[in-house]
Design a protein that fits this description.
Blueprint lengths: L1 E10 L2 E11 L3 E6 L6 H9 L6 E6 L2 E2 L10 E4 L11 H12 L6 H6 L15 H12 L6 E5 L7 H16 L3 E5 L3 H7 L2 E6 L2 E6 L1 H8 L4 H10 L8
Parallel strand pairs: 3-8, 3-9, 6-7, 7-8
Antiparallel strand pairs: 1-2, 1-4, 4-5, 9-10
Helix pairs in contact: 7-8
């Protein structure tokens, strides 16, 4: 589903992604973790075409992301920060996204899940941060795609909305989707992740399941395991 080889990206003199190699083919939930500035968001944006790397290969569903934009119809994306046209109402924004993708979708269940029906006529500039993130969540899960990419999806969610998000991604996993996400909430990683991809300084230093990261680090909690691997400054080779 996703094949990446030799991916490199600079911002000025900063080498953000360094020969990244990654192969994800099986349905499941994949956590992309790492310290701030390790390249997590840049990697996700490279996959969806919002960042253009200088070198390397990215294929999604067998198509090169550099040769055509058609592969994007296979991806749902939820950005870390929800930036919307402030003058639009929620229902207008949903309609706009459908028009942009030229694709029909039924948002009824998502609106009900996140209790957004009473808010539909509110302008986006008048929404709280938590409500904006719920709208972001609806847009991120609106279309039925095999690949779902979520960048810090739980930002600003209250405990009730967080519990609903957990049910949502569990349901998507049962449907056979591939879900890539970044997070700083380690309890979410322990509860849901089938595989962990750990970045440090633009390199992949670990790729594997929870049992493997505990075994490799010699730790018994995900926080300590990640801290241990980061401290040892892994080699970042392709896995």
């Amino acid at each position: 589903m996703i094949e990446i080889e030799g991916l490199n990206k600079h911002y000025g003199r900063n080498h953000i992604l360094k020969d990244i190699c990654l192969d994800i083919r099986e349905p499941g939930i994949y956590a992309i973790l790492g310290p701030n500035g390790s390249g997590k968001t840049t990697l996700l944006k490279s996959i969806i075409g919002l960042v253009n790397p200088e070198s390397g290969k990215i294929e999604v569903c067998g198509s090169s992301v550099f040769e055509s934009h058609n592969y994007r119809s296979s991806i749902s994306f939820l950005p870390q920060i929800a930036r919307f046209p402030e003058n639009l109402r929620i229902y207008e924004l949903i309609r706009l996204i459908k028009d942009i993708r030229n694709e029909e979708a039924d948002e009824t269940n998502l609106l009900e899940l996140f209790n957004l029906e009473p808010e539909m006529k509110k302008r986006l500039r008048n929404l709280s941060g938590g409500t904006r993130q719920k709208v972001n969540m609806v847009l991120g899960f609106l279309f039925d795609t095999p690949l779902i990419i979520l960048d810090e999806p739980t930002v600003s969610l209250d405990p009730v909305a967080l519990a609903k998000f957990k049910r949502l991604i569990a349901a998507k996993k049962k449907q056979g989707k591939i879900i890539l996400y970044t997070t700083h909430i380690m309890s979410l990683v322990e509860e849901f992740s089938d595989e962990i991809i750990l970045l440090l300084d633009g390199k992949i230093i670990f790729k594997g399941g929870l049992d493997n990261i505990y075994k490799e680090s010699g730790e018994n909690s995900i926080e300590n395991a990640i801290a241990s691997l980061v401290d040892t400054n892994g080699n970042g080779e392709c896995n």
